[in-house]
From TrEMBL, chains A, B:
Coiled coil: none annotated. Residues 215-340 form the Ketopantoate reductase C-terminal domain. This is 2-dehydropantoate 2-reductase. It comes from Vanderwaltozyma polyspora (strain ATCC 22028 / DSM 70294 / BCRC 21397 / CBS 2163 / NBRC 10782 / NRRL Y-8283 / UCD 57-17). PANTHER family: 2-DEHYDROPANTOATE 2-REDUCTASE-RELATED, PROBABLE 2-DEHYDROPANTOATE 2-REDUCTASE. InterPro entries: 6-PGluconate_DH-like_C_sf, 6PGD_dom2, KPA_reductase, KPR-Related, KPR_N. Keywords: Membrane, Transmembrane, Transmembrane helix.
């Protein structure tokens, strides 16, 4: 079922993942009124179809009873109206070690199949607004070259600080700044599609959206925050300012966890020829000190949801291993968080531990 | 109020701390029937005075409705009958960063004062059955030399795996092996007192209790387990076999957390001239693999109680810093667990974080 109808002249955008990021993304596109916004809303579908979203946004203010042009309970439902989706925006968590059904490549397949059936020549633009590094690999490795013929892969790096605080309730604390570019920075189609997306997304005076010619640089830069700070908050289950204030001498977290971890990310990026300026270490720590915020992995652990551990720590560590970059801080955080992730998987029924044999029985 | 009465010819023993360790200690002394056993029972006093303890012990079997010779709700209560306590056995958690009122030196003072009033010439033997290293320093530094004139400090290193699983309910999983000796291994009085305690504690065929001439060696050895494994389980909130099985490749926890952390403890001990054999690394990991057990710090975090972080990690790290021993694994675990400890302190009202200024307001 779809609520509302397509009424705007412009591209069709399908947003998958109606969390803190996805809903603000949807709202920004709807607000500009230059595209048709469809959103796949899994858990909150009933409440949103009845009363719409309640949004408290530092960019757009307090909004009640808002709905995008169309809402769908499932991907299949979003395909029933035979609309060609020009932009497929994925704002779900990216968890390659999670269930196959929730992997990005699995989610996208029926949409790409439907698009090809509707118009086999037209380009499908996939925009991944997600954390981490090397997340496009899962798609490139899963699909055949033929399947990717008319697919353009766009990378969205977002700084936003937006959280779903209840069913249909979104709280956006930090200004939306989105950087869009092709995963392949030489891809002209991706460059043009990025510009088109920026045009339908940008709301002057409200949000900031820019073309990012160096997507990989931007992703490594954002990883400074996520690999060091997001991970630590998940382990100790504290918001960011508390991790700084609660430290020994009030400085041990930044000096002996955040700074070394960030320096290791800088070293890994450098081993790939990407130079991240050291000043961003202080930049991210200062942001952290002044904003009462629980990053995504911390929230995931609290909510018993899987964390984006592999794209945030696993993939950088793979690059470090390939290029022989020592990363002792990141590796210890990763090995500790692997245990937390497995604990979450056990709670979600994704793995079983036999308390009689004391062995793991199966993994998914 | 004291329940029961002193009926045995032999020394008077006061046990402070009626948790998994304290109750089995009390039972072992009572079972031997060569001393009078008084226990200070704080939280479970009512239930124990009514129905006694329910103990499920791998050493002594299932015991119902058991009570020691005397039980007391408070230290003050234990002193009202003007008994000279020959042995004061402390089986509480040792948390020097916790509230002053629960520090070992604070707890002991009224008992030592009472003993001196009753018989100023008689020796008070203090036995600390607690984890960690350098825990005697708090007592030595707090008391004057005069106050310690007739005090003998005994060190108890216990391997037991006993937990309070409910009010008045104790579950002892691992055989009780207790090693007793003087903190100062040259102290003849401590040696004699240790032998006397062993005599009243040893139950042949049930428990194992031995004189330990090298207390410091034994404490560093036990720290291999506690500094590496106990700490990690507290961070990830898993029992020990799960920390091994849930690891990447099922070996990353032992290879990249437990082994490096234990090697660092060995290196710190070596910097003090104490040689811990490397084979104990495998020994402790193999024990861990085969026993479904949640160590004390993990249980403390689950129960929102302060952890013995300083005596298990803080003190060894101080020695490492003094002797310039690099301990990157232990230091990262320590800095992470300091945040968890502060979180627990905040929950217990021992520190306040102002969410407006994002600053710590006070500490105790």
């Amino acid at each position: 079922m779809s609520a509302g109808g397509s009424t705007v002249k412009g591209p069709n955008v399908l947003i998958i993942g109606a969390g803190g990021v996805g809903v603000i993304t949807a709202y920004s596109l709807w607000f500009k009124n230059k595209c048709n916004v469809s959103v796949v809303i899994r858990s909150d579908y009933e409440i949103v179809s009845q009363v719409g979203y309640s949004i408290d946004s530092c960019d757009y203010g307090k909004i009640e009873n808002w709905r995008p042009h169309s809402i769908h309970k499932t991907i299949e439902d979003s395909l029933s109206s035979k609309i060609f989706y020009d932009f497929i925006v994925v704002t779900t968590k990216n968890i390659p070690d999670g269930p196959v059904a929730s992997r990005v490549s699995t989610i996208l397949r029926p949409i790409l199949t439907s698009n090809t059936e509707i118009d086999p020549k037209k380009e499908s633009n996939i925009l991944l607004i997600q954390n981490g590094i090397d997340l496009e690999n899962e798609i490139i490795q899963t699909y055949s070259r033929d399947e990717l013929e008319n697919v353009t892969l766009l990378s969205g790096i977002q700084f936003i600080g937006s959280t779903k605080i209840g069913p249909g309730k979104i709280h956006q604390l930090g200004k939306d700044r989105l950087f869009v570019g092709g995963f392949d920075s030489c891809d002209i189609k991706a460059r043009n599609a990025s510009q088109e997306f920026i045009e339908i997304y940008s709301n002057e005076g409200y949000n900031i959206v820019e073309f990012e010619p160096r997507v990989r640089y931007a992703r490594w830069k954002k990883l400074l925050y996520n690999a060091a700070i997001n991970t630590t908050t998940a382990l100790v289950q504290l918001d960011v300012p508390r991790t700084l204030e609660f430290a020994k001498n009030k400085d041990h977290t930044e000096k002996f966890i955040y700074e070394p971890a960030m320096r290791e990310i800088i070293a890994i990026a450098a081993s790939e020829g990407i130079i991240i300026e050291e000043e961003f270490i202080d930049f991210f720590i200062n942001i952290s000190r002044n904003l009462l915020f629980k990053p995504s992995m911390c929230v995931d652990r609290e909510k018993n949801q899987l964390m984006e551990l592999e794209i945030i720590l696993g993939n950088p560590i793979k690059v470090a291993e390939k290029n022989n970059v020592p990363v002792p801080t990141l590796f210890l955080l990763y090995n500790l968080l692997t245990l937390v992730q497995s604990k979450l998987k056990e709670e979600l029924g994704l793995l079983k531990f036999d308390e009689k044999t004391l062995k793991l029985q199966s993994t998914t």
